[in-house]
Amino acid sequence: MASALPSGDMGAAEANSGNGGQMQKKPFTFNEIVLRNRLTALVVDGDNFCRLLEQGILQAYGLETQSVNNGDAAVELIASGAKFDLILIDMLLPILDGVEATRRIRAMGMRCKMLGVTACSGERERQAFLAAGVDVFVEKPLGPEILIPVLRELDGQV
Amino acid sequence: MDVVNQLQRQFLDYSASLHREGFLDDQFTQLQKLQDENSPDFVVEVASLFFEDCEKLINNMARALEQQQGVDFKQVDASVHQLKGSSSSIGAMRVKNVCIAFRSFCEAQNREGCLRCLQQVTQEYSLLKNKLQTLFRLEQQILAAGGSVPTIE
Fold this sequence. Notes:
The complex is a heterodimer.
Chain A: E1 40-44, H1 48-60, E2 64-68, H2 71-79, E3 86-89, H3 98-107, E4 113-118, H4 123-132, E5 136-139, H5 144-154
Parallel strand pairs in A: 1-2, 1-3, 3-4, 4-5
Chain B: H1 3-20, H2 26-33, H3 42-66, H4 73-90, H5 93-107, H6 111-144
């Protein structure tokens, strides 16, 4: 990984309430938050570019990140005891898809904030992903209006 | 107007044209805001990775569409879906829009339509690559002249 692109269960993180996980759009920019705490995140995306970009964005805020490129590896990582404050997970993944991976991660008792970040855009996909356990369904791109409120909440700034 | 001001003006005008013509959307601007003294080459590296990803996916689509004995449209669609995701993530709006149309042709199992879209997506990727290289060259010229790259709002 090139150097310019920057290379952890925190407890119950509340799902966005009452609206099926959709965030309100606000005029945030990526650089308007400074975190007080060291947060950890797992990025699960089968596309090399998206995985590295999402990691890069999170690392720019000072999050410690890991990434895997398939759902099975994500489940294994959690099963091995790894804990994260935040998980970004794509829907279409090799080996084990994001919906089933999410279901299994939640079944293991992992209550961290999970964002389903996907190029899928249908209502059916959204409902399926939310039902599996993601807190927010995000149609790519992952923008600051979604990420900033999540990071503020995880950092205890809300 | 001195050299730095001129170059900065060119950079802003060129950047504005890329947005106006739909090559880039706000996501790209947001990624530029992540670039700072700790990661001064963030955007260039992101763009470089995107183009690598793009080329790989376009090659996959072309190979799948070449199959004379029967095109696996699911395979084509999988690559298009991935490219839709990555182009959205960098703010490559025109590439993303072609992907949306492309997916419809995959769903309809329309090989001719898919081939047209493949041609379009290849063209849009080449255009974007050239334009971003020009933009990055302008940035380098500004820095070499002792100036700072203006922030896009």
